[in-house]
Specification:
Blueprint lengths: L1 E5 L1 H8 L7 E5 L3 H6 L3 E4 L2 E5 L6 E4 L1 E5 L7 E5 L5 H6 L9 E3 L4 E2 L4 H6 L2 E2 L11 H13 L5 E2 L1 H12 L8 H12 L4 H11 L2 H4 L6 H15 L5 H8 L5 H10 L4 H17 L9 H10 L6 H11 L8 H12 L3 H6 L4 H20 L2
Parallel strand pairs: 2-5, 10-11
Antiparallel strand pairs: 1-2, 1-8, 3-4, 4-5, 6-7, 8-9
Helix pairs in contact: 5-7, 5-8, 10-11, 11-13, 11-15, 12-13, 13-15, 14-18, 16-18
This protein binds adenosine-5'-triphosphate and magnesium ion.
């Protein structure tokens, strides 16, 4: 059997950037031979194995044929006679379809190295069209390597447009879309991911609420701003949706099956930006500020509120961040225990807490 390093590790090695994880392809082997050498099989019917010591993935060379639509319906064929070139041919981009032999020689039947040098993202073959996830992966690599000067070549853009117009994206399950979106939000230039999808018309299908030009541009500006900070996925996602009316943002976050923290921060940010947009240059009414603090559950979720304000800094409503911060700090200082000791109980205690918070907010907001 012959063993080759493949995919991202070869690409990143040649780019001179740190290699995160290494994937290997094994040619001329059978599952039995792998198990005899101590490898553990990952899934019962899938020819991928884990190295007994390093835990790295070793996949038997395989070909994939599409049967149905969308991500499902691939028939995997692996046998000792599948060649390295056949395995490389099923991969998405030429820069991801290079292999390196143990002795260091490069196997590059699809000219990935030339594309790496020309900073081009190009599909390996027409088989690219068999998996719509590759559209999202390509947009994500464009986002990752944008700072290095990489762009998607015209042929690949055209092929992806064809795939989209034949309805391929509708067959992707939300979980897989979210996984790519989540990763994209943490790439070097996350806005490029969404620009590519917008360009392709893919956003009309995946996040239609965002496809409107004004909302899209505002969202991208906020995302650009928050992504230059050490920010969470939830903050980045909320920034992206920040120009949407709250019901639309919440509906999209739910439909995309984004995690609760992402959905909640997007909901709160959109409520906040929507509400604040009425007070351009005007003072905020303390009563409404208190209602907003209640809605955001400032009292029990102070860390989340901090993330919310940090994200608000990246929106056109940033002028309100400082006053809200001061008001929140002050209102958080109200001690329910102290009021309890003063003899307040039940509903009266609730009222006393509210009045005290309101007084402090009013004072903090006073010019
Ligand atoms: P990363 O640095 O994000 O790990 P990677 O290129 O290693 O980048 P992986 O998702 O780890 O990406 O996949 C490993 C390799 O498998 C890729 O380089 C590519 O050759 C191939 N690959 C992964 N997913 C697909 C897909 N959906 N279609 C075609 N090839 C794929
Ligand atoms: Mg990888």
């Amino acid at each position: 059997m012959e063993i080759y390093l493949v995919g991202g590790a070869v690409r990143d090695g040649r780019l001179g950037i740190p290699v995160k994880d290494r994937d290997w392809v094994v040619v001329g082997a059978t599952p039995e031979a792998m198990k005899q050498k101590g490898f553990r099989q990952v899934g019962a019917n899938f020819p991928v194995f884990l190295h007994p010591k390093t835990g790295e993935e070793y996949a038997l060379a395989r070909t994939e044929r599409k049967q149905g639509r969308g991500y499902h319906g691939f028939t995997v064929y692996s046998a000792p006679d599948v060649t390295l070139e056949e395995d490389l041919k099923r991969r998405d981009l030429t820069i991801n379809a290079m292999a390196e032999h143990e002795d260091g020689t490069l196997v590059d039947p699809f000219n990935g190295l030339a594309d790496l040098e020309q900073k081009t993202l190009r599909h390996v073959s027409e088989a690219f069209a068999e998996d719509p996830l590759r559209i999202l992966r390509t947009a994500r690599f464009a986002a990752r390597f944008h700072p290095l000067g990489f762009t998607i070549c015209a042929d690949t853009m055209a092929l992806m447009r064809e795939m989209i117009s034949s309805g391929e994206l509708e067959h992707l399950v939300p979980e897989r879309v979210w996984q790519e979106v989540q990763r994209a939000l943490h790439e070097k230039s996350p806005t490029v991911f969404f620009k590519v999808l917008h360009d392709l018309g893919a956003l009309d299908i995946l996040m239609p609420e965002l496809a409107n030009t004004e909302r899209f541009e505002a969202g991208l500006q906020a995302l650009q701003c928050i992504s230059t900070q050490d920010s969470t996925t939830a903050q980045r996602f909320a920034a992206l949706l920040s120009a949407l009316p709250e019901p639309e943002a919440s509906a999209r976050a739910t439909a995309m099956k984004s995690p609760n923290d992402c959905r909640d921060l997007a909901r709160l940010l959109c409520l906040l930006t929507g509400w604040l947009s009425q007070y351009n240059g005007a003072d905020l009414p303390p009563e409404n500020v208190l209602d907003m603090f209640d809605q955001a559950d400032l009292w029990r979720r102070p860390e989340r509120f901090e993330l919310l304000l940090a994200t608000l800094t990246c929106t056109p409503q940033q002028q309100h961040v400082q006053p809200l911060k001061l008001a929140a700090e002050s209102a958080q200082g109200v001690s329910p225990q102290a009021l309890l000791k003063q003899g307040f109980k039940g509903k009266e205690l609730g009222n006393a807490i509210r009045n005290e918070r309101l007084a402090r907010i009013t004072q903090a907001l006073a010019p």
